[in-house]
Design a protein that fits this description.
Length: about 300
């Protein structure tokens, strides 16, 4: 079965799509590059653009039109609700989940000077950074991974350091630029971070063709994370973090909801069997709401 895969045009998006095709039988897929709203609007901070699906809506439209049969996404960009007629056909084995600091001076987060300027467009990262270092100055940064690294290392640039996803740098061969891998007690990742998802038309034959790509342990972990996110509004721009992992037959989920300035943080943790991943995320969302999460998220 030959499938047409849609992808964004960035180097990272192309790497992810090429990786998916490399895991399928040779000749079973072809690629169509599709530009999304998130790719076109580069002069506005992501949270201010608004709406869900900034990096996915155009790909989903192409799926509905059957121009493509599959679309490759970073799972953290994919809205928690699947449109009618579409499905997540496979979730690949997860890459490193966390966030990293790329520092112009080579200094770690704790060693950066007072009032250092950090580049990030993520409310989740910003809130957790300010929780750890309230003195930091945060400055929006947009562009693909290459562009962001160039901005971070520019001697005359405005950034002392920037934050990026560990997975993206590893996939593109930029691990040498990492100054520090930030621990989860400082920076918990976004729900689904580090995982690649293949969205497809809700067709049994297509889903069967994608089955060899699917990693059950990763899927169970991200199901818990995304269930937590969905119960609290489902937007990827929220100051919300979640990470789940499977150890033996126990799934553990830790999640945070923060105020934008990082002065308030609600953290919840729970365990369940992998088959109850969705219920675990929903339960921890209820626990967070009981502690005031709804008010923090506005």
């Amino acid at each position: 079965m030959r499938l047409r895969f849609g992808t964004r045009g960035s180097k990272l998006a192309r790497w992810q799509t090429d990786h998916v095709l490399s895991l399928l039988p040779e000749g079973s897929g072809e690629i169509e590059v599709i530009q999304t709203k998130g790719d076109r609007v580069l002069d506005t901070p992501l949270p201010l653009i608004g709406g869900k699906g900034l990096f996915t809506a155009e790909l989903e439209a192409a799926l509905h039109e059957n121009r493509i049969q599959c679309a490759v996404h970073s799972l953290k960009d994919l809205p928690t609700e699947q449109p009618t007629g579409l499905a997540i056909g496979a979730i690949l084995k997860r890459a490193p989940v966390g966030d990293v600091l790329v520092s112009r001076s080579g200094k770690s987060l704790l060693d950066l000077p007072h009032h250092a300027t950090i580049g990030t467009s993520s409310r989740r990262r910003a809130a957790q950074l300010l929780r750890a270092r309230p003195d930091l100055q945060l400055l929006d940064i947009r562009g693909n991974v290459d562009t962001r690294i160039q901005k971070a290392l520019d001697p005359s640039g405005p950034y002392d350091a920037i934050l990026l996803a560990h997975a993206g740098l590893e996939r593109l061969g930029y691990s040498a630029t990492i100054t520090e891998v930030l621990p989860f007690n400082v920076l918990l990742p976004a729900p689904g971070q580090g995982a690649i998802a293949v969205q497809c038309r809700d067709d049994a034959a297509i889903i069967a063709a994608l089955a060899p790509l699917h990693d059950t342990a990763t899927a169970q972990a991200v199901t818990a994370e995304r269930s937590f996110l969905a119960a609290l509004g489902g937007g990827c721009s929220l100051p919300l973090a979640a990470y789940a992992y499977l150890e033996g037959s126990t799934l553990t989920l830790t999640a945070r909801v923060l105020s934008l300035d990082g002065t308030r943080c609600i953290e919840v943790t729970g365990t369940a069997s992998p088959s109850d991943a969705e219920a675990l995320g929903a339960q921890l969302a209820d626990d967070a709401k009981a502690q005031g999460a709804t008010e923090l998220l506005g």
